[in-house]
Amino acid sequence: MEDLYKMLDSQFRPSKQFWEPFYSDRTRPVPFFHNKPDENLHAYIASGLIQPGRALELGCGPGRNAIFLHSKGFRVDAVDISQAAIDWAKERANELLYPIHFQCRSVFELEPREEYDFVYDSGCMHGILPHRRIQYLNMIYNGLKPGGHFGLTCFAPGFGDIGGPQFAMSDWDAYEEKTMKGGLAFTAEKIRYLLSDNFECIELRMMNEMDEDSDLFGVPFLWTSLWRKK
Ligand SMILES: C[S@@+](CC[C@H](N)C(=O)[O-])C[C@H]1O[C@@H](n2cnc3c(N)ncnc32)[C@H](O)[C@@H]1O
C-alpha cells in the first residue's frame, strides 16, 4: 500500500515545498497568522464539551490553538511539516513560558497509541491528499484514548470569493488536475461519511465569523466539528 501511496504522492507538489516559504514573511495578511484561537475551540472548552487532558494538534502552524489549549490546562504536543511555522510557534510559546512540545514532523510519521484525550486539526486535513485520508483518520482514531475527542475544522464548498477554496474539487478532480488548488472543500455529508464509522458526532456547524478586533478567530467558510471516539 505504501508503495502505491508514494507513487500517487509523487504526482503532486510535496506539501513541505508549499508550506515552508508560506511562513517566511510573518507580516503577510494571513488571517490565521494572528495569535488567537478558533472560536469553536474556545466554545468547546467554555461549554465543558471537552475537558483538559493530553492534546495533540496536527498541522499546528504558528501554534495559536496549541497555545490556547495549554492556557486552558491541556498538556500539548503539536506538529507541523514546516520548520518555519514550528520556529514561530516555539517563539510564541517561549515568550509565555509555556512548555508546549512543538515538533517539525509530518503527521504521517506519527504513531500514537491511545495517548490523547483530544486531537485537533484546524485546516490540515483539507490539504491531505485523498489517498492518504484514511491513513490520517486511522492515526487519529488510534491515537485517541477510548472516549477521546477529535476536533476538525475544514473548508466548506462555495466560498471561493471570500477566502475559501476557489473550486469545490472532487477527489477525482484532484488526481486529474494533479493539484488540490489550496485545499479540498467538504460537504457536511462527506465529513459525516468519513468520520461516522469510528466517531460519534457531537457538533457539526459552520464557523462563526468574528470581528478583526475579537480575541477569537472566526471565518465564515470553514466547517467546525467535534467528534467522540466510538
Ligand atoms: C491552513 S494551515 C493551518 C495552520 C494552523 N492549524 C492554524 O490554523 O493556524 C495548514 C497547516 O498544515 C500543515 N501541514 C500540511 N501538511 C502537513 C503534514 N503532512 N504534516 C504536518 N503538517 C502539515 C502546514 O504546514 C500548515 O501549517
Description:
The chain is α/β, with parallel strands linked by helices. The protein has 8 helices and 7 strands, in the order αααβαβαββαβααββ. The protein has helices at 2-9, 15-22, 39-46, 64-71, 83-95, 133-143, 171-177, 188-195, and strands at 54-58, 75-80, 101-104, 116-122, 144-155, 199-206, 222-229. A 7-stranded mixed sheet has the order 3-2-1-4-5-7-6, sandwiched between helices. Helix 5 (83-95) links the parallel strand 2 (75-80) and strand 3 (101-104). The longest helix has 13 residues, at 83-95. The radius of gyration is 17 Å and the shape is globular. The model has no long low-confidence stretch (mean pLDDT 95). Residues 15, 19, 32, 59-61, 64, 79-82, 85, 106-108, 122-124, 127 line the site of S-adenosylmethionine.
List keywords for this structure.
230 residues, Rossmann fold, seven-stranded mixed beta sheet, 8 helices, 7 strands, 22% strand, globular, binds S-adenosylmethionine
Q: What is the chain-wise order of helices and strands?
A: HHHEHEHEEHEHHEE
User: Cofactors and ligands present?
Assistant: S-adenosylmethionine
Outline: globular
Give the N-terminus to C-terminus distance in angstroms: 26 Å
What structural class do you assign from the helix and strand content?
alpha/beta
| Computed CA radius of gyration, to the nearest angstrom | 17 Å
Order of strands across the biggest sheet?
A: 3-2-1-4-5-7-6
- At the fold tier of CATH, the topology name is Rossmann fold
Would you tell me the overall average pLDDT?
Answer: 95
Q: Give the full name of the CATH homologous superfamily.
A: Vaccinia Virus protein VP39
Tell me the number of structural domains.
1
